[in-house]
Design brief:
The chain is 0% helix and 44% strand. It contains no helices and nine strands. It is rod-shaped. The chain starts with 13 loop residues before the first strand and ends in a 10-residue tail after the last strand. 10% of the residues are buried.
Length: 97
């Protein structure tokens, strides 16, 4: 008698860090928690891949949403998004003499 065996994998889970704000020109760390050993890609809101690590640092030039995509070789995927707001530094005013 022939038999067929199925392996049922659990759902992939990944969670990006909370939205954050930084001063323009400062670095930000993109980080995510995941429940397995996956292939990771961070993608910006212009669909550019900016990193292939679970955690990475970069310097955004403007407000940007980043999505982390966690994948298994068999094609299962999960994603999560975090927003980074860039805030311009205040310009100091000269004191009157």
């Amino acid at each position: 008698m022939d038999s067929v065996h199925f392996i049922i994998k659990s759902e992939i889970k990944v969670q990006a860090a909370a939205d954050t704000a930084i001063c323009t020109g400062d670095p930000v760390t993109l980080s995510a928690s995941a429940d397995g050993n996956y292939v990771f890609r961070w993608i910006d809101d212009e669909d550019n891949i900016v990193a292939y690590q679970q955690d990475t640092s970069l310097v955004p030039l403007h407000d940007t949403r980043y999505t982390i995509l966690a994948s298994l070789q068999k094609g299962c995927n999960a994603s999560s998004t975090m927003a980074v707001k860039t805030v311009a530094l205040p310009v100091p005013r000269a004191l009157a003499a």
